[in-house]
Amino acid sequence: MPVRLPITAAAAGAALLLTAVTGTTPAAADHVRGGARLDRVTFGDPYADCTIGARSPDSVVYPGTEVEPYLSVDPRDPNRVVTVFQQDRWSDGAARGLAASWTKDGRTFHENTLPFSACAPGGADFERASDPWASTGPDGTVYASGEGVDYTKSTRSALLTVTSRDGGRTWRNLTTTHVDEEPFFNDKPSITADPVRRGTAYQVWDRLDNDPPGPSSLDGPGYISLTRDGGRTWSEARLFVDTSAVPDTQTIGHVIVVDPRTGTLYDFFDQITHSADLSTVIEAHYAVVTSTDGGETWSAPTTVARDTSVPEVDPNDPAKTLRAGSTLPSPAIDPRTGALYMAYEGSDFSGGAYDSVQLVRSTDGGRTWSRTPALISPKGVPAFSPSIAVEKRGNVALTYYDLRFLKPGNTTTLPTAYQLATLAHGDPRLRSERRISRIFDWLEAPDAGGYFLGDYQGLAAAGDGVRAVLTETNSGAPRNRTDVYSGSLRTR
After folding, report:
1. CA distance 192 to 136
2. 57 to each of 47, 92, 152, 459, how far by Cα in Å?
3. Are 341 and 396 in contact (CB under 8 A)?
4. CA 264, CA 257: separation in Å to the nearest integer?
5. Which of 180, 240, 271, 485 has the fewest CB atoms lying closer than 10 Å?
6. Which residues pair with 466 in a beta bridge?
7. β-strand 451-452 against 317-323: which pairing, if any?
8. Among candidates 1, 159, 137, 2, which has minimal Cα distance to 73?
9. Beta strand pairing call for 340-346 and 356-362
10. What count of other Cβ atoms lies within 10 Å of the Cβ of residue 345?
């Protein structure tokens, strides 16, 4: 369970037009699996010559690696897609910078840089960047967010945003929405464009205080900043999920989904209570808070499900740590009915032995939730990093990594594949599944607190189906260990 410790400094906003740096674009898909065409969206390394960011002689940068992708689809045109990802991951936190790829035909991607670190042209003055996220509003404005961090010249962590009004070709309105120094550390920001309030978007994150007053040694409430003018300006960050009543408690993984019928906002997160020395998790559960006035006021938290996740490891060699989506909820809403879904990693179906992909549902606006979760990934197979989306007909799609191809006794490789599960009308009894990736070796990924494909991947509704973005590794390529792929997927 994460405790992410400090790093950040004094807020400032900047409006800046940043021109796209376009990369090469392949003409054909890299592979087709299960009827899904996946196109590579990452090409080359725009930060290959950057020498900023080494924390210590033990810091290792993995050049040519792209990890932790997310995506956004223009609600007006499912072929207009923007993906965002970390570029050149460091072993001890964050990456040289963040980057993006955009397409207007759904297949041919063009890469550019995001200005969230000093490695990027015109970038913010931070040594590294992390946690990319993107969301597109009803007018086509793309909002991208991330985190800038320093490790050597200071101990700052900041929340950053930019916008694009041309489908991701160029980025402008670089803004620091919040910044702190130790003992505070800002972590895991996400950004959501409001589908009904034009020009409105919400950035949410957890703000860890590693030296709060009183008996606690940790406090980690949720914070929010919002824009009402299309990302030109952002509100002062403010607390909206309070954890001070329970000592040594943090939140993580805040994500907002919006009911397009009513405009109601739902913020999902994991709440974790630690022992006083932070060595043990005492209790953890997923929760949701609700706003009916555009994020101005919020309800008290409602428990969604217990967090029963266990350490992510190679099951044949538990000394090999993996790093995936544990403790991070993936929520979605049915745009026709308002039914809410949350996918997450949990060990309920293995007796605490390993994580599976689990799903809970609410049909009353988040007031009550499934008494027991549904198992989505195959029984008896470790599975990781679920993403969820509900397409316009109400069919629910989930994507995830699993280890079904790992043979007993194999401790040299970790065969991994990415799966798509579809639940017709959201009913787990009407589940179908197919593989959409190559089978690849997870152990080729960068080692960053575990073999790292990203703390999350991405999935979004797109036309009559969904669109996924995911990370795969490359074997025998130490200077190009990973690439990111995206494809449009049928759900029926």
Report:
1. 8
2. 20, 11, 12, 37
3. yes
4. 9
5. 240
6. 461, 489
7. parallel
8. 137
9. antiparallel
10. 28
The torsion angles phi and psi of 292, rounded to 5 degrees, stand at -110, 10
Task: State the Cα–Cα distance between residues 26 and 391, nearest whole angstrom.
Answer: 28
Q: Is the full-model pTM beyond 0.90?
A: yes
Name the one residue in this structure whose structure tokens are 């030296």.
211
Beta carbons within 8 Å of 355's beta carbon, 6+ residues apart: 309, 310, 312, 326, 345, 346, 347, 382, 383, 384
Peptide bond into 183 cis (omega under 30): yes
Query: What element of type H or E holds 289?
Result: strand 281-291
Burial state string for 383-394 with b = 16 or more CB within 10 A and e = fewer than 16:
bbbbbbbbbeeb
Spatial separation of the C-alpha atoms in residues 465 and 286, rounded to whole Å: 28
Query: Which three-class secondary structure state does DSSP give residue 421?
Result: strand
What letters, b where the CB count within 10 A reaches 16 and e where it falls short, cover 288-309?
bbbbeebbeebeebbebbebbb
Place of tokens 């029926």: 492
Positive/negative CA dihedral, 170, 176, 180, 186: negative
Which amino acid is it at 473?
Answer: T
Output the tens digit of pLDDT for each of the chain's 492 residues: 455 443 333 333 333 333 333 344 444 457 787 767 999 999 999 999 999 999 888 999 999 999 999 999 999 999 999 999 999 999 999 999 999 999 999 999 999 999 999 999 999 999 999 999 999 999 999 999 999 999 887 789 999 999 999 999 999 999 999 999 999 999 999 999 999 999 999 999 999 999 998 888 999 999 999 999 999 999 999 999 999 999 999 999 999 999 999 999 999 999 999 999 999 999 999 999 999 999 999 999 999 999 999 999 999 999 999 999 999 999 999 999 999 999 999 999 999 999 999 999 999 999 999 999 999 999 999 999 999 999 999 999 999 999 999 999 999 999 999 999 999 999 999 999 999 999 999 999 999 999 999 999 999 999 999 999 999 999 999 999 999 999 999 987
What is the number of other CB atoms lying within 10 angstroms of the CB of residue 413? 17
Contact status, residue 470 vs residue 435, Cβ threshold 8 Å = no
Q: Which two tokens stand for residue 193?
A: 């464009």
3-state DSSP helix/strand/coil % of the chain, to nearest 5 = 0, 45, 50
